[in-house]
User: Which sequence fits this backbone?
């Protein structure tokens, strides 16, 4: 989830400035909107508690992340209104707010006392490493696309969508006992 989201986030202000000629302040509103959306969705998922399983909330969050990144790629490709680009990115943020906090909670619920520390560390490292690798690879994709005269944001958002799709597939495999 974090790899897909941060791959898209790294380019959101840039694409709004380049594709729609927005100023930095206006383009930065996308970051404000997604921050508020992520926080609100995180609050909502915490209030849901046990009414929905961790697996269900992770699946929902991953699906929203996939929908948001795929829609963002479509909006950039079709050069639709910039507000749609911002709105689709907010959808991805809602997905992160719902699903991302539950991954840690589900991991702790599935861990024994003996492996809780190891599992927690592994999740943290995987999260950070996944995002770092996605950002690195997206930079390569962006540079190559620029050199072959392709709108460089399209392959970057295709990569983010692919990663979100992998998150959704992984989430679908999450056990319903968590």
Assistant:
């Amino acid at each position: 989830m974090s790899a897909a989201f941060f791959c898209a986030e790294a380019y959101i202000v840039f694409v709004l400035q380049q594709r729609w000629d927005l100023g930095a302040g206006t383009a930065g509103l996308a970051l404000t909107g997604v921050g508020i959306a992520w926080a609100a969705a995180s609050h909502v998922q915490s209030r849901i508690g046990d009414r929905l399983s961790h697996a269900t909330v992770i699946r929902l969050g991953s699906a929203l992340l996939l929908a948001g990144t795929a829609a963002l790629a479509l909006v950039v490709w079709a050069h639709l209104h910039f507000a749609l680009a911002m709105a689709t990115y907010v959808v991805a943020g809602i997905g992160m707010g719902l699903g991302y906090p539950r991954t840690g909670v589900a991991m702790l619920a599935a861990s024994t006392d003996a492996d809780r520390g190891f599992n927690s560390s592994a999740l943290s490292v995987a999260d950070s490493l996944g995002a770092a690798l996605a950002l690195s690879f997206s930079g390569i994709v962006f540079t190559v696309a620029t050199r072959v005269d392709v709108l460089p944001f399209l392959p970057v958002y295709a990569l983010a969508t692919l990663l979100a799709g992998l998150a959704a597939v992984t989430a679908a495999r999450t056990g319903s006992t968590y």
Remarks:
- The chain has six helices and no strands.
